[in-house]
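Weekly structure sync, notes
Attendees: PL (lead), two postdocs, one rotation student
Agenda item 3: pending single-chain targets
PL asked that the sequence for the first pending target be pasted directly into the notes so everyone works from the same version. It is reproduced below exactly as submitted, 325 residues in total.
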Amino acid sequence: MEETELCFPQLNTSCVKPKRPLSDTVLIYMILSFISLLTSALNLLVIISISHFKQLHTPTNSLILSLAVSDFFVGFILLFQSMLIDGCWYIGDLMCVVCCCIDYIITFSVVGNMVLISIDRYVAICDPLHYSIRVTQKRVQVCVCLCWICSLFCFIVLLKDNLKQPGQYNSCVGECVIMVSLSEQVVGFFIYFILPITVIVVLYMRVFVVAVSQARAMRSHITTVTVQGSRKVTAKKSELKAARTLGVVVVVFIICFSPYYFVSLADQETLFNVSTAAFLTCLYYFNSCLNPLIYASFYPWFRKCTKVIVTLQILKSGSSDTNIL
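Predicted structure, written out during the meeting:
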């Protein structure tokens, strides 16, 4: 008989490591580490750009900043997730609960930020005359703070039993098990997935209809506008471009998150094999790496900011006043 390998050989209650070729383990480690570093680096560029340059201190960019902060921490979560590749958790039961708590908080904050972004674009496109009055920097900051506070409250409610005694649901030493009842999973599924996705889809359908009508109106009157009118058209084009860019972010978010949520509720052992479940989990986390790439593709200001940051021109005095729009 082959000798089984334990996570902690000195303990009889240790978990058994699953048998997997070393090449597969190394490859998975490399891929997850690369995605983790890339996710953290790209989102750090977004955070520095919006925080440093004064021209980017707008309500919409404040929401993008909050989303980038969430995505930045996803990179750290991936590093901890990679520890479970060989089937063993080496850093204790308390860290297991802490990592899961951070995961829950970030997940809920990402969903909340997506809803706020959708509301922001809805008001900007569908009610542009009152946008500057209804959507102010201070109100956005309050909404972002409430989003993070609600995320913190949600994880306390869902993981309250696990927080009382970390590791109580582990069957052996070296395991990281977090128990959430089926009823809590179902309630969380509707409150933090079905409801937000419904709101996002409804708002963006309305934004799409209004944006198409505005684009047609601008094309039909483009030759008869005055100088003042041309400025209004430019402003409308800017809002439409922002709506399109953030619309892509929202669509990518739905594509990446939807399979993971359905898998989390389904019986993975009967409906999905381990490889499929692992792929959908990686897709779920990879969404945080895609958002900065979308900004780089659609936002010229992000490319300019990246150039200033990478070339260290950001260290010069007065760099925060640089014209990057």
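Discussion points:
- The chain has eleven helices and no strands.
- The two ends are 68 Å apart (CA to CA).
Action: rotation student to compare against the earlier draft before next sync.
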